[in-house]
Amino acid sequence: MPTHMLSGRTSVALSAVVALMLFGSPAARAQGSAMGLPHFPTSHPYKGESKDSAADVGFTFGNVHFRVITSKYETNASADQVLDFYRKALARYGDVIECEHGQAVCALKATKEGLSCDDSHGKHSHFNADYDSHRQLRSGSPERFRVVAIDDSESSATHFVLVYLEIPKDDDSH
Known about the structure:
Blueprint: H1 3-23, H2 32-35, E1 44-45, E2 54-61, E3 64-75, H3 79-90, E4 96-100, E5 103-104, E6 135-141, E7 144-151, E8 158-166
Antiparallel strand pairs: 1-3, 2-3, 3-8, 4-5, 4-6, 6-7, 7-8
């Protein structure tokens, strides 16, 4: 697939993620089970200003498939406790990398499938699954992955978002 086509599709996918995180969606409610991630024991859905805590949106057009599932939560547990819990849960999907400000903060810089903290893939758009997050865990491949992003901007509670994202695979044959 030509680079300009993937970049355009990636931009659409990223725009959808940002819109879902900022504005929420009255569409179907996403649940942890749909993402394949367990519910953090002391958390509850966080609606904030968006009035919605979850969304599940996708489309298929021919062999192009896109899906994003997001859920926002709040807990009194620390960010480290949340990350430790989800580090174990994400491991069932392969290598887990930890990112801060778009850079890997662990020995592993990318998963075996090629997912990294910097998803710009050359000149393509940068993926940012969060809303003021500085810390993330990621697992999967560049086309299908899960993210746990921590919003540590408030001291009263830990807010975090779970994201499952499928974006079209880069296929040079089309």
